[in-house]
């Protein structure tokens, strides 16, 4: 049985006239008659009593009427869903992020999507660090992610921010009263940082800052996310290198201090696979471009 057969049955049942039903369905009357005969053959029962002047439903036709209407409603629903998905009005978008900048961006973007396109479900996947996220985008595990240039082949990016680096120090630290600190003054310090295996660009920049100052950082503990890292700093486990977005995060026992050493800012972008066919993703990217104007690399 085919969907068109049920649509044909309903049209004839409601019109009780093959000619009017054929016009309604934009079919030739012989084609409509063949569809009804085929449906009757499949069901093993006649659905209509036909005379030269009138058409009536048989008892089998009467019994089929309500189920056929229910099927028609479901078919209309399926078509509506398909149209909405094609227009990007509904769908799922998997969004990966990590770090304080990621949390800030994702919070604002998710809120705007829920207001403008409530049929789109943004599925948040935290702890997706920039380097790891690029691979997940490429492999189709994520639709969208907070990443950092340079891009890999096949990944498009929208650059939103350039983040400066700060030191996160315990309140009782010997340098916590200072406005600025040089990295060479931290040679003997213990550091906390993000995992080495997950592609954190903040960790890479911290290691580069220390190397430029002539030492390798003593990393005593790794944190799975930005808030855990700041909690470890506040607890006195070590000091951390963070981005300027962390200034909006207040954690008990943590003081932020500027770094005097020259270090290129960390560019923050949204990235997605260029070949991703999702219409919902396109709508989310459009919203992101509107609320986060593109900036240039510094």
Present the secondary structure layout:
Elements: H1 3-15, H2 18-25, H3 29-43, E1 48-50, E2 55-57, H4 59-86, E3 91-96, H5 99-116, E4 120-125, H6 130-138, E5 144-147, E6 155-163, E7 165-170, E8 180-181, E9 190-193, H7 201-212, E10 218-222, H8 226-234, E11 240-243, E12 254-259, E13 266-273, H9 279-291
Parallel strand pairs: 3-4, 3-5, 8-12, 9-10
Antiparallel strand pairs: 1-2, 5-13, 6-13, 7-11, 7-12
Helix pairs in contact: 1-2, 1-3, 1-4, 2-3
Radius of gyration over all CA atoms, rounded:
31 Å
Structural class: alpha/beta
State the shape. Answer: rod-shaped
Order of helices and strands: HHHEEHEHEHEEEEEHEHEEEH
Quaternary arrangement of the chains shown? single chain
Report mean pLDDT, rounded to a whole number: 89
| Main sheet attributes: strand count, strand direction, barrel closure | 5 strands, mixed
Strands side by side in the biggest sheet = 4-3-5-13-6
Counted by DSSP, the helix tally is: 9
Strand content: 15-25%
Residue share in helix:
40-55%
Residue windows where pLDDT falls under 50 for at least 5 positions: none
- Tell how many strands the DSSP assignment holds: 13
* First-residue to last-residue Cα separation: 63 Å
Description:
The protein has a five-stranded mixed β-sheet with strand order 4-3-5-13-6, sandwiched between helices. It has a four-stranded mixed β-sheet with strand order 8-12-7-11. A two-stranded antiparallel ribbon has the order 1-2. It is rod-shaped and about 100 Å long. The protein contains nine helices and 13 strands. It has helices at residues 3-15, 18-25, 29-43, 59-86, 99-116, 130-138, 201-212, 226-234, 279-291, and strands at 48-50, 55-57, 91-96, 120-125, 144-147, 155-163, 165-170, 180-181, 190-193, 218-222, 240-243, 254-259, 266-273.
């Amino acid at each position: 049985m085919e969907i068109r057969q049920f649509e044909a049955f309903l049209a004839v049942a409601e019109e009780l006239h093959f000619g009017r039903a054929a016009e309604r369905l934009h079919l030739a009357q012989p084609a409509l008659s063949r569809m009804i005969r085929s449906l009757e053959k499949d069901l093993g029962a006649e659905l209509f009593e036909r005379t030269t002047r009138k058409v009536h439903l048989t008892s089998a036709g009467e019994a089929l009427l309500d189920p056929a209407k229910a099927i028609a409603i479901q078919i209309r629903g399926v078509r509506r869903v398909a149209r909405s998905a094609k227009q990007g009005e509904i769908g799922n978008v998997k969004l990966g992020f990590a770090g304080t900048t990621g949390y800030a961006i994702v919070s604002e973007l998710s809120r705007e999507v829920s207001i403008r396109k409530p049929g789109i479900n943004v599925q948040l996947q935290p702890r997706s660090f920039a380097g790891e996220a690029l691979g997940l985008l490429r492999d189709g595990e994520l639709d969208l992610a907070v990443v950092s240039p340079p891009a890999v082949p096949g990944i498009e990016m929208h650059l939103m921010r350039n983040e400066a680096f700060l030191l996160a120090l315990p309140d009782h630290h010997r340098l916590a009263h200072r406005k600025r600190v040089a990295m060479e003054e931290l040679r003997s310090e213990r550091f906390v940082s993000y995992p080495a295996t997950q592609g954190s660009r903040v960790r890479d920049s911290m290691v580069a800052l220390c190397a430029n100052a002539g030492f390798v950082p003593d990393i005593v503990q790794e944190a799975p996310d930005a808030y855990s890292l700041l909690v470890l700093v506040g607890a006195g486990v070590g000091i951390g290198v963070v981005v300027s977005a962390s200034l909006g995060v207040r954690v008990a026992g943590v003081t932020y201090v500027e770094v005097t050493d020259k270090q290129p800012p960390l560019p923050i972008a949204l990235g997605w696979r260029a070949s991703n066919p999702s219409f919902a993703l396109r709508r989310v990217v459009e919203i992101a471009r509107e609320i986060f104007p593109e900036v240039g690399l510094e």
